[in-house]
Amino acid sequence: MSNTNILYQHGTLALLVPGLLDGTLTMDELLKHGDTGIGTGEGLDGELIILDGTPYQLDGDGKINILDGNFTMPFANSHFADYAEMMEVENIAREDLQSQIKEAANSDNTFFSIKITGTFKNMTTRAVRKSSSPYDSLSKTAEKQNMFNKDQVTGTLISYHSPTLFDGAAVSGFHSHFLSDDHNFGGHILNFDTVSGVVSFQQFDTLEQHLPTNNKEYMNHDFSKDNIIDDVHNAEG
């Protein structure tokens, strides 16, 4: 039986800051560690969401693709889904929703995942077109992102909450991706006005952090020269 208390993470958000964007893990390998997740491809190639074991990508042109097992990533999270319903919501604003989730979860100092299935109003997402080596920094690459908007869209949000003491390895707070039910819209969520639907919750007591030790650029990089926290938060929006 799969361990549903473990959150698997390949790479860190910090390594994206200086532009260490080589794909260092295959999708086949990531799926050994979970049937649910989020991430980005080599060169920040779009925004990924894994639902029920199927990996989807919103590419920089706004198209949803199903990825094969050879697709590589510099950063990704995955886990085996075992969500429990937390609450039903109706036309709740994003900020109010996050406050209610944090209060109900009482899990600020550990990792947890939120799954929301429902209808979202005025949702804005983003994706970045794949860049090639030599890569720009995260802040420069993120400037080239394309944004997409739907007045109303029904689908699934997957979010990971990371505690403040892990800021840099992940982004503290919520990191959320989305896929519409019709598979025509998705990506990294920048904002939405309200949502009506079902909120489910899964807590983790273990973070399995996997690092790209076979990647020479990562192993030799001096992170003390990077403005990691600010750049991660600015890019993650």
From TrEMBL:
The keyword Lyase applies. GO terms for molecular function: acetolactate decarboxylase activity. Coiled coil: none annotated. Its EC number is 4.1.1.5. It catalyses: (2S)-2-acetolactate + H(+) = (R)-acetoin + CO2. Keywords: Acetoin biosynthesis, Decarboxylase, Lyase. InterPro entries: Acetolactate_a_deCO2ase. Belongs to the alpha-acetolactate decarboxylase family. This is Alpha-acetolactate decarboxylase. It comes from Companilactobacillus baiquanensis. The gene is budA.
